[in-house]
Fold this protein.
Amino acid sequence: MEEKKKGFFSRLFAGLSKTRDSLKSGFDSLFSGFSKLDDDFYEELEEILIMADIGVATTEEIIDSLKEKVKDQHIKEPAQCRQLLEESIREQMTVDENAYDFENKTSVVLVIGVNGVGKTTTIGKLAAQYKKAGKKVLLAAADTFRAAAIEQLTAWAGRAGVEIISGQEGVDPASVIYDALAAAKARKADILLCDTAGRLHNKKNLMNELGKINRIIDREYPEAFRENLIVLDGTTGQNALVQARQFKEAADITGIVLTKLDGTAKGGIAIAIQSELHVPVKYIGVGEQIDDLQKFDADSYVKALFDVPVPADEEETAQNSTAQEEN
Amino acid sequence: MAFESLSEKLQNIFKNLRGRGRLSEADVKAALKEVKLALLEADVNFKVVRQFIKSVQERAVGQDVLNSLTPGQMVIKIVNEEMVSLMGSETTEIALRPSDEITVIMMTGLQGAGKTTTSAKIAGKLLEKNRKPLLAACDVYRPAAIEQLQVNGERMGVPVFSMGTGISPVDIAKAAVEHARREGMNVVILDTAGRLHVDEDMMQELKDIQEAVHVDQTIFVVDAMTGQDAVNVAKAFNDKINIDGIILTKLDGDTRGGAALSIRAVTGKPILYAGMGEKLSDLEQFHPDRMASRILGMGDVLTLIEKAQAQVDEQKALELSQKMRKNAFGYDDLLDSIKQIRSMGGISDMLAMVPGMSAKLGSMDVDESQLGKIEAIIHSMTPEERSNPDLLNPSRKKRIAAGAGVPVSQVNRLAKQLEQMKKLMKQFGGKMPGMPGMPGGRRGRLRFPF
């Protein structure tokens, strides 16, 4: 476990460090550059949180509660304030112990989300990991809409060495799910991973289609453990909250997979979603390799979140604060 | 989270301002704070917002408030103008070489932005313009990316050039241009793999392609839902491979699309098209002015006002308001208002243009057929019955119901609704409650949100 954490941590940082040559940490400069907790300090903090896509509303909530705590605990030092802030976000984002129960039960995992977030790739990686852990995995290629989506998942099934149930392009995806459920029961699969077509959450008929798929799983395989994962692109802004809300209505989501965090995006919208909808982030994607899909670790996430890159032209201020630090 | 539209907020800020001739600095500051929030909620980059607000503030302070405009409108007008000018005030197209030369277009962007789909859409557009496009499959990394391009190309009737996954994208690009030359085709669209802006090796690959074949247009494809990071990504792509134009995808979602503004601001490159759906024909011309309203969360208010103004016949409006005052509103008048709503594009079209409504519309069904039923019922009435609703007795109602093909209960309901409307009108002193396109006078209930 210790090993794994380290691997994840270094991977996450490796992604960020690609830009680090020309970048300096703004958050460090914030907490060392300010000598007292004044309005300027909070304004700067607000900027950092908003730049991480946490959103205006959640940022205000975070800062308000921080101010309250600072007052209650008579905190004067920016460094203590940082600790407080990190703790409260970490606490909020910490995943329950039973969040991964589905991995050890006979379960059906439905993977949903808007177009291009990485659903098929996520399933491919999960399949490989579960297979490696000794599970009998079955895939259902229920994205019957996008060109070559079935081929893409089939390629992943080949790589992972797992079986796949698919239909023709253009058939009702619910029928593929139906077949896959029957196959999962007959072949005694431990985990059935269902890929679905990307759909924008404001397309009513597509969301109804998803609701139908969800009901079919409930009806045809009631004894299976249910897990509905929504895949969110880590670079997505405030719209991800609307996405999560709408998808939750169509098929009760139990977890978030946050992808594409190996760039410079922070995926802070996950914090807003967690605070409004109480859906935890369970997996996080930090690269294209199979092992780059990792279980979410609140600790390293919060660290990475506050490791804010500053563009080169602002380096000067960052350097100034570094100089102060050395003094 | 209750969504209060920007225009409503501005209206509140300025409500005590009536009678003053100029906008003071404090007024403008208060208003721009709301504008700033709206922009941030729309995912416009924080730093871009700060810059933008600064330039608007300079322009807005000391502006004359024209008689016809409220201060809120004035600020929005300035904000809108600044945004449109920042976003490029006119629509642009992909520049092509003359038909006897080969134009090479390279599609680039992050993973999942929609490059492959957009490549095929552009090929289809070029086909319509009597060009001979060739799609080249340069994504050798993602499983089945080549198959996806092949299927899409087939659907569009555009040939797809591929060499499998065992060859470097640079060589595929070279061979594709060579192939186009031999076959007499004049546009080559290179579909490249999605890549991160911080991945040096992958970015170098794009540069290598640019050097190996003469790329005329490097297009940056970006998801309209992208958040604050859009500036970092766009800047890195532009710095490293010097993009020529931008295509925004997935704009058929309900994102406000502030990324468009951020990307324009950091690259200065034109936004060429917007992806508006999954069908291969859904690639539309980009309209900077409409995007500005969308980012501000104002819906397409300008279009709505234009439509309403165009549809309301002044003379009729006057007659109607007199009738209301005399409480002589009858079924004929109701029929007229339904017609007006219809000519504005139906209820759902109108609601979609109202700020804050488009988001709610997703979970709400507007039953347009109800309007049709009401029309049918009214059409089944005699002229006397229409102008004098009190005539309706049970036997007449039965006849009307049979004529309109609806149960009597619906006729009853309509009668009741008309009665309620008349009551409301009386209360509001002859102003039509909440009916768009109806005359309401200055203090009437008909109010566009500023």
Summary: Chain B touches chain A through 51 residues (CB under 8 Å). Chain B has three domains: 6-86, 103-289, 301-427. Residues 355-364, 430-450 of chain B have pLDDT under 50 and may be disordered. Residues 408-427 of chain B form the longest helix (20 residues).
